[in-house]
Specification:
Layout: H1 2-37, H2 56-68, H3 74-94, H4 112-133, H5 141-148, H6 153-174, E1 179-182, E2 186-189, H7 194-207, H8 217-235, H9 239-257, H10 268-285, H11 292-295, H12 297-315, H13 326-332, H14 337-361
Antiparallel strand pairs: 1-2
Helix pairs in contact: 1-3, 1-9, 3-4, 3-9, 3-10, 4-6, 4-10, 6-7, 7-10, 8-9, 8-10, 8-14
């Protein structure tokens, strides 16, 4: 019976991932046609990297893509996960077969919170993307410029922080969480400081979203990260959460299929904010937040490259990197975008394996 239960659990997880991939793969052609038909791309090219420095290489490599490739691709990811989750719930309640009742992976203790986080955060990103791609009718230059540039970084960080605060309060008061497990040290009690810690982690993970800067880069990175957490959740018996994570992986891989250079569309903030926010929730739900910096090492390094660059320019009046985030530094050195992407994918996969092993052996 134990073996049968394990087999059923594994099948549920893989069914969620496969269904998510197939659905996203099948609807992408129509989805992409919609994006191109309505010209949902930026109306002006980004001429500076995030560190504020004009970069000729950046404009050369990204101008055509910025002005002719739609954003909003992240919709594909979260809509697919939501549909698969509720479709499996529907099938498990409607059809009376011996296996259908086993495929539902929506549960209050494991997946309702990450699903809510994914949708809420993705909608925040969607608003930002719409501001950037929509033709706005405002006559005022200031108002028009505000909407054409999307939400400011401060607004995005604030809204991500709000989502993080809601999640932190839920974990602390509803789930009774007040500490984190650190491999090699055991449980570290945080008490009420668990709430600000949760918020800081969510904002920090979101800051790593700047990795979405080269065709296919972010898709491969997030696929590795969520695969790692699928393994962790599965090993801990959090079957529903593992199915949710693999559903995310499936939709991301379908996104990636159509975004191997040259990209068919960009993920945009609706994908980045959604994925980074739900990643934070998953890390805390699995008790594996301590290995998050390892599993998501590329997000960490990419974010720190920007912070270090900005601090160096402010206090030393010198740059450390040719451009920031880090992947643009390698581009500026002459690396082709595909080489940067492939090498980052390899690093991400290795980091994911290391993080999983550390967590499982602790």
């Amino acid at each position: 019976m134990h073996d049968i239960a394990i087999t059923t659990s594994v099948i549920k997880v893989f069914l969620a991932g496969i269904a998510s991939f197939l659905l996203a793969f099948l609807i992408t052609p129509c989805f992409a046609d919609f994006l191109y038909k309505h010209k949902l791309w930026k109306k002006k090219v980004k001429e500076k990297t995030i560190d504020g420095k004009s970069a000729d290489y950046f404009k050369k490599h990204h101008e055509k893509g910025e002005l002719q490739t739609p954003r909003l691709g992240g919709i594909l990811v979260w809509i697919t996960v939501v549909f698969v989750a509720f479709f499996f719930l529907f099938v498990s309640h409607i059809f009376d077969f011996f296996w259908t009742e086993k495929i539902n992976f929506l549960s209050r203790d494991q997946t309702w919170l990450p699903l809510f986080t994914l949708v809420a955060a993705s909608l925040v990103g969607l608003i930002d993307d719409i501001f950037q791609v929509a033709e706005n009718p405002f006559k005022s230059t200031k108002v028009r410029d505000f909407f054409s540039n999307g939400l400011s970084l401060r607004w995005r960080i604030f809204l991500v922080g709000v989502i993080g605060a809601i999640g932190a309060i839920w974990f602390y008061f509803k789930l009774g969480e007040s500490g984190i497990y650190v491999p090699g040290f055991g449980e570290v009690f945080l008490g009420v400081f668990y709430i600000p810690f949760f918020i800081v982690v969510m904002i920090a993970v979101y800051s790593g979203g700047v990795i979405d800067g080269i065709d296919g880069l972010s898709g491969g990175v997030f696929a590795s990260i969520f695969t790692a957490y699928t393994v962790i959740a599965l090993s801990q018996g959090q079957i529903n959460l593992a199915a949710f994570c693999l559903a995310v992986v499936g939709s991301v891989l379908a996104f990636l299929w159509f975004n191997i250079p040259p990209a068919r569309f960009y993920m945009g903030e609706t994908g980045i904010i959604g994925l980074t926010a739900v990643l934070t929730v998953v890390a805390f739900l699995t008790g594996a937040v301590a290995v998050l910096p390892i599993i998501a090492i590329l997000l960490v390094v990419t974010s720190f490259s920007v912070i270090i660059q900005l601090l160096s320019k402010k206090f030393r009046k010198k740059k450390i990197f040719l451009a920031a985030p880090l992947h643009h530094h390698f581009e500026a050195q002459g690396w082709p975008p595909y080489k940067v992407t492939m090498r980052f994918w390899i690093i991400g996969a290795v980091a994911g394996i290391i993080g999983v092993v550390i967590h499982l052996l602790s």
